Amino acid sequence: MGFSKYLIHWYSNNKRDLPWRQTKAPYYIWLSEIILQQTQVKQGLPYYESFTEKFPTVFDLSKADESDVLKLWQGLGYYSRARNLHATAKHIVKELKGEFPNNYKDLLKLKGVGDYTASAIASICFNEVAAVVDGNVYRVLSRYFGINTPINSSKGAKEFKALAQELIDKKKPAEFNQAIMEFGATHCTPQKPDCNTCPFNKSCIAFNKNKINELPVKIKSAKAKKKYFNFLVFISGDGKTILEKREGKGIWQNLYQFPLIETNTNVDVNTLKKLVKEHDLIKGMSFQLSLYNKDVVVHKLSHQHLYTKFWVVNVNKLLVNGISTQDIHNYAVPILIGNFIETFNF
């Protein structure tokens, strides 16, 4: 029995019972794949269930307000995925009459759909022989075949895609794709893979050459930049606060946050008080300033680390139209802000 057929056989006996595996409807497969990008199944499953309950069809999703989509997405991170999800739903309904493209080439034209997602939908929904390559697939193939080419290089992307396309079972492309992803997710894991019970251990090059921890190879990315965020949590005498919508491009685009003062270093209360006095939201008003979190909250993103402090600013009355603190949970915010809101006693 060859690698592909053995893998499919393993999958038939070991696959997890997941809701998106009970259907071949493109909407549900697309939704699950977008949610699971850069997200583990245990984290993504509740979001999938929430989305399918609130938006059972692509038509429902297309009619939603972006703010509702972002609110439901809150906590998953990489918010561009949610914005692309919403934009693509609108495109499919308006331009394609609610019908998803039925082949890899046309699926690839959808906003937010790359090679991996297009391959997954094409193979699972339309039985097209299009091999998926994600982190799990890179790991399985690099270890089994002993490939040292960095997976985050253009050469590696081409090499692994070609190999996966060569290995895919031409009669059962959907089963093969799901099998290799499942095997990487549950058996050939990044840390402490279960090599002793692995059905491929006799022929796995990494196992036999003791290179499990060396593969796959990945080029180290640039060191993340440090940023220092000081959020101003205004509290007025009539129970209002201020949330501002982030405009322009960026990972938090169209999400809400407290007014922000960014500094070059960590600052103390006296330094920040001087900055607050010059802020447009104060303009000479009297205020009381206190630091809420004694320990700096470090929020790690892929390209930057945010060293964050939340400063409570008590004022008699706001100079702008604020929102009731009772309504603050209705706004879509980054998880960094959401965690603060959950712990702060408004």
Automatic annotation (TrEMBL):
<dbReference type="InterPro" id="IPR003651">
    <property type="entry name" value="Endonuclease3_FeS-loop_motif"/>
</dbReference>
<keyword id="KW-0227">DNA damage</keyword>
<comment type="function">
    <text>Adenine glycosylase active on G-A mispairs. MutY also corrects error-prone DNA synthesis past GO lesions which are due to the oxidatively damaged form of guanine: 7,8-dihydro-8-oxoguanine (8-oxo-dGTP).</text>
</comment>
<keyword id="KW-0234">DNA repair</keyword>
<keyword id="KW-0326">Glycosidase</keyword>
<feature type="domain" description="HhH-GPD">
    <location>
        <begin position="35"/>
        <end position="186"/>
    </location>
</feature>
<dbReference type="InterPro" id="IPR000445">
    <property type="entry name" value="HhH_motif"/>
</dbReference>
<keyword id="KW-0411">Iron-sulfur</keyword>
<comment type="similarity">
    <text>Belongs to the Nth/MutY family.</text>
</comment>
<dbReference type="InterPro" id="IPR044298">
    <property type="entry name" value="MIG/MutY"/>
</dbReference>
<keyword id="KW-0378">Hydrolase</keyword>
<dbReference type="InterPro" id="IPR005760">
    <property type="entry name" value="A/G_AdeGlyc_MutY"/>
</dbReference>
<dbReference type="Pfam" id="PF00633">
    <property type="entry name" value="HHH"/>
</dbReference>
<dbReference type="Pfam" id="PF14815">
    <property type="entry name" value="NUDIX_4"/>
</dbReference>
<dbReference type="InterPro" id="IPR029119">
    <property type="entry name" value="MutY_C"/>
</dbReference>
<keyword id="KW-0408">Iron</keyword>
<dbReference type="InterPro" id="IPR011257">
    <property type="entry name" value="DNA_glycosylase"/>
</dbReference>
<keyword id="KW-0004">4Fe-4S</keyword>
<keyword id="KW-0479">Metal-binding</keyword>
<dbReference type="InterPro" id="IPR003265">
    <property type="entry name" value="HhH-GPD_domain"/>
</dbReference>
<dbReference type="InterPro" id="IPR023170">
    <property type="entry name" value="HhH_base_excis_C"/>
</dbReference>
<dbReference type="Pfam" id="PF00730">
    <property type="entry name" value="HhH-GPD"/>
</dbReference>
<protein>
    <recommendedName>
        <fullName>Adenine DNA glycosylase</fullName>
        <ecNumber>3.2.2.31</ecNumber>
    </recommendedName>
</protein>
<dbReference type="InterPro" id="IPR015797">
    <property type="entry name" value="NUDIX_hydrolase-like_dom_sf"/>
</dbReference>
